[in-house]
Amino acid sequence: MPVSGIFISHSSRDNAAAEDLAERLRAQGYQSLFLDFDPADGIPAGRHWEREIYARLRSCSGVVVLCSAHSMASDWCFAEMTHARALGKQLFPLIIDDCELRAVLLDTQAVDLRPDAEAGYARLWAGMRSAGLDPTDSFDWDIRRPPYPGLTPFEADDAAVYFGREDDRRRCLDTLAQMRRYGGDRLLIVVGASGSGKSSLVRAGVIPKLRQMPGWQVLGPMRPLRQPVEALAKVLPDGARERFGGEAGARALAMAMAGEADERPATLLVVDQLEELVTTSEVGAAARFVELLQAALADAACDLYCLATLRSDYLAALQTHSAWGQVPFREMSLGPMTLRHFAEIIAKPAEVAGIELEPGLVETLVQDTGTADALPLLAFALNRLWRDFGQDGTITLAEYTDRIGGLAGAIGQEADAVLAALKPTSAQLADLQRAFRQMVRVDPEGRYTRRSVHWQDIPEAVHPLMEAFVKARLLVAGHDAASDDQPEARTLEVAHEALFRAWGRLKRWLDEDRAFLLWRQHVRPEAQAWQGAPRDPGLLLRGGPLAEARRWQRERGDELGDELQAFIAASRKAAQRTRLRRRLIEAGVTLGLVAMAGLGVALWQQHQETQAQLVNSYWSGAVSARDAGGDALKAAHYFARAADLSESADQRTNALVAAGALSGGLELAAMFSLPHSPDAVVVSPAGAVLLSWAGPAVRLDDLRSARMLASKTHDAPVAQAVLTADQQVVSRDMAGSVWLWGGTPAARELAPHGVAGMAVDDAGRHLLAWSAGAVQVWALPTGESLGRLALPQAPDGARFIDGQTVVAWAADGRFWRWRVGTVEPQATWASNCAVRGVVPGEGGELLSWCDTALLRHEALAGRVAARWASPETIDGARWVPGRALVLSWNTARGRLRLWRAEDGAPSVGDALARAGSIARVLVTPDGSRFVTSGAGGDVETWEVGEEAPAARATHGRGEALVKAALDASGTRVLAWSAAAGARLWDTDTMTPLSLPLRHDARLAGAAFFDAGEGVVTWAEDASMRVWRRHPDRELTTPTAPPAGNGRAPGPTPPDAALKARLDALGLHGYQVFDRRENDALVGTGPLARRLGPDDVVSAPLTLAEGVGGGALLPDGQVVLWGNTTVQLWDGTNGQPLTALLRADVLYPDGVRVDTDLLSWTDERARRWRWPVPDTAGTSAQQWLARSSATQMDAQGAITVLTRARWCALPRATPPAGCADAVPGSAHLDQ
């Protein structure tokens, strides 16, 4: 695995030095180099330089910076440095002439070539090699190992033949480097679907590379299995293991590893298949493992980091887990392989092993990788081809297509061959089917996943068959670590879950047993909860669930295990006691009537059961997609299907409520397309117009009607355009020509050439422009010139500080204040540093920043009033309204600082840190909060004055860049990214208020319009989508605390009659949260139950933090709240209608419940509502398709509708933009 490219950052004026460096690098063995000219000259027109730099830097392993006066003065070179630092790349400054190094390089050892160039280059080569960038750094292949391992993961010994995930390997190494360099989170979780190659990436891609880097000690990889603490002890160094065994507290691991800190700077614990803590590990052992790991990761003394792999469908379960929810981590999402990567997986190991692949074989294999299981199927097929046909040094196309049955047939053919060789009897086949049932579980989305079992639990008659499957690498044998009460035990599991889907016979077996597997998977957690309650009779099975359990006990009792058997037996005894307390009901029909009606009843019941099972399946899929998979679109579609199939009115209503809570009432109102993908877009926040330009053409569109209002074509590409108060347009092209157009009067050229920049005042009534040696102001909308001021040097920018006063500045830090209409500046002063940005404030104040300096100016007095320094380079700053504070940030490092505007003293003790770089910083109008977004996929809300985020949302897992905007009120955040689309969030709680807003193509941008009532999104294919908010349908909103009093938020003791009923049902110690006629809501600790007429008790409704209060709502709904969370439940079937919702009204003083929930303290209040979407005259699925422009197929795949398909959906009135030609267009071509 050779090292990837070295990026050479340099100024175009240093090309000769860069070319010399490249030749020297090649002579040292570095063959993969990125060498380009300064982006100002070298990137073709029309290419986005920042995107280009980011892509090139992301794919490199290290950056050599040629440091000269030219490069240190270049903004483009500075961007390369900051991008590289943000990406965790190694920087190697190489000083080639006199210069002052940028701050971003000061913490890195520079090599100075000026005294002795050859000695300097020798130091550079040594430094690069010590940092792990050794050109000879390739791995040797062990010829005793297969070049294609098959279904089992690649191991560290397979590093020489591991290909296809180079970009992800580099991303993982870079992220670990960032975590170590900048501090913060110490747990990195690689998240990916089953079969995506997570384990192989970490084992063969990352671990071998880390072991070659100085300063890293790698422990593991380990798998949690049943006893994760014992598995952890096995991978610890000898000394740490001895210390670990002698400690019993939560800090046992931290104290054990603290002794290693003096020997190595950092230790990395690798945990593979982290989901086993939820699916396989004993509950107590899993909790102990989490406790130990959490304490160790938080302890700076032991300098421990953790890298883990996790199936993506268990991510949400981990985030909401009571213990794991307290462990901060960073997520790295592993996407699907591309066709190019599949070709590398096939061809490159063959090159290493000296195997010749027949022409056409690689292409055929790649073409066959179009399934979800492509990677494991390909891995197995390649292993079989090598094992059976590769010994002669060639593998042919015919051997693939004819001999092993192609990609889809290889696994099934091999499994069938194992059976054919051993010729099992029918009894052995039945035992084999039973054994595979024990090795499978069903995940929340209904997919088969593997489960490790003990060898002694496999029927002895099929042990020879199991050994044959192990030899064929279809099963994997392992060992469970010994514990205090259990000896070491041999285990067995399938090599990969693809076996469940690719072997036809096994898939048929599992499908036949699906009902049993689903039931066992559903009831096992209930049994575990009962065992740990301790044995709370309220958790026992009753009625239909108990009858179903007894049926499976009769049919499959030997497969239930002791825990389930005890749970069912206790449930039967409780049911018998209940029946004895009830009076026998006399039969009122004759035996003959029963006999005649029997057949009809049976048929009706069969239909009802089938329908109910389907509805329950959609419910389970929806809850899993929402809470475990983080897929709100899929969840909404499942809820819609459940609503359409529900025969119960209450169940349909609740399914619609669940779907509506996800959609938030945001509906697609119009679609249209621009002629070309725009270079930039400007949207009127208060109005409903969109301004866009591409090349020399600029146009204005009405977002309500989806009509073009006006357009203008310049003689040169457009550089900037702004909207005026009257929705006119001022546009400037690259030649400096400025035009006013789009309304009355007719289009008018304000300046023929030379304008470098322009701005409009807050009222939209004056235009300010600057050019070489002057600033000028025009009145709007007339275009009348109001004055021009000549300046002794070219201004770098200018801004209005009120309607008649302008401040301009030059790049060297000189400032001028000018009263419009006069011929001389009223004041001039110097900041004595190169200005990088200026923000006007109130009362004539300005905020500017240089490299690491912040300055507060009093423009009316013409002076710098305060100056202070930041430890980091400042990339942006904002005033905090009403707080006399200044917020600054460093983009690359993700650091923010709050300062007192008066004197620059820190308002918060240390820098505020986010996990990735910063793309947006937004301050709310009241100055109480600010929002950050950027790399990594998260969006955070911070309360001013606090050192940690108040709320965080994951907008897109592993997204390279997330941008965001605030509405005018500051209560709503619109976030977007290229891959995840756009989504609306509540600012204070980061509760999602819409489904993801998607296009066919990658999203390019999003914005509010119409005073926040509308949202517009646009994609890279020039498609535009206009969405309308319905605030009364949004899940939550902040509000003012009410004047009156509400109910006390806590429970009350039951009266004597209700207590007797509860005691009779075994619900001892339950308190009352609400009573309505014959219904009561009762609970204790984290559990609540709805108690209905005839003592019908609902399934447990849970709130992990403990139920602080609750209320019964119409349609059988129940709302529960704690000190920090809220959740809505279906009180009949026990399903959560919403995800767990974070509240910002903590420890509420009062609560009011009607159809919605209002909770408050003295300082703030929040309303939660769950309206039913209006689906009158249509199905829930049609409603969802119209509002989201998405549909779900029979396999559960989401499709984004094209404009034609969306317009064709049935509706009463065609939406805007659906007619091919719109008569009466107000288009003005200017």
UniProtKB/TrEMBL annotation:
Domain TIR: 2-132
Pfam families to which the protein is assigned, alphabetical: nSTAND1 (PF20703), TIR_2 (PF13676)
Region (Disordered): 1029-1056
Record InterPro entries: nSTAND1, TIR_dom
GO BP annotations, alphabetical order: signal transduction
Coiled coil: none
Bias kind Low complexity: ranges: 1036-1049
Taxonomic lineage from the root: Bacteria, Pseudomonadati, Pseudomonadota, Betaproteobacteria, Rhodocyclales
Protein known as: TIR domain-containing protein
